[in-house]
Amino acid sequence: MSLDVRVIAPNKVIWAKNAEEVILPSQSGMLGILTSHAPLYTALNTGVMKIRNETGWTSIVVMGGFVEVEKNEVLVLVNAGEYVDEIDLSAAKKDVEKALETFNSAEAPKEKEEAAEFLKYAQARLKAVVDK
After folding, report:
1. What is the pLDDT of residue 132?
2. Are 65 and 78 in contact (CB under 8 A)?
3. What is the DSSP pairing of strand 21-26 with strand 29-34?
4. Is the distance from CB of 60 to CB of 7 less than 8 angstroms?
5. Is the CB of residue 122 less than 8 Å from the CB of residue 92?
6. DSSP for 73-105?
7. Residue 54 to residue 61: CA distance in whole angstroms
8. Nearest CA to 82 among 113, 44, 120, 49?
9. How many Cα atoms sit within 13 Å of 28 on the Cβ side?
10. In which family does this protein belong, per the annotation?
11. In which domain, by residue range, is 26 found?
């Protein structure tokens, strides 16, 4: 038996395949999902999720969101996401620099909050590429 896993961002379906295991960056730490997991609804942090299927592990950087687990179906809704293997190291470094500049120049609380989220995502992307 396997999990039916879907990872969906507003602009694309990132993953829609079966898997044996999913590891997610939840608000309370890393969360592992295996078949027959109890029903679950929880918020996700920005970070790297991992999916294991018959070909091995796949890593996806996600920018927050939510996960719903029920009856071996895992629905992950994220604000943004991309495969770690598709991230260019030099571009990721530049994105961190740009996000840091945006954060430092933001003045209004809402701007600062949004800039902080993008900085966190940029840093997660860079860390994921460096760690792979």
Report:
1. 81
2. yes
3. antiparallel
4. yes
5. yes
6. EEEEEESSEEEGGG--HHHHHHHHHHHHHHHHH
7. 21
8. 49
9. 4
10. Belongs to the ATPase epsilon chain family.
11. 3-84
The C-alpha R_g of the chain, in whole angstroms, comes to: 15
Q: Residues 10, 73: one domain?
A: yes
* CATH code of the domain covering residue 35: 2.60.15.10
Cα 19 to its chain centre, rounded Å, is 16
107 and 50 within one domain: no
Nearby residues of 94 by Cβ (< 8 Å), 6 or more positions away: none
Same domain, 13 and 75: yes
Yes or no: say if 5 and 18 are a contact pair by the CB < 8 Å rule. Answer: yes
| pLDDT tens by residue, 61-105 | 999 999 999 999 999 999 999 999 999 999 999 999 999 999 999
1 against 24, higher pLDDT: 24
The amino acid occupying position 13 is V
Alpha-carbon distance values, 40 to 9, 67, 72, 77, 123 (Å): 20, 8, 11, 14, 28
Residues 125, 71 share a domain: no
Based on the fold, state whether residues 40 and 73 are members of the same structural domain. yes
Structure tokens that stand for 54 in this block: 């018959």
Question: Both 78 and 106 in a single domain?
Answer: no
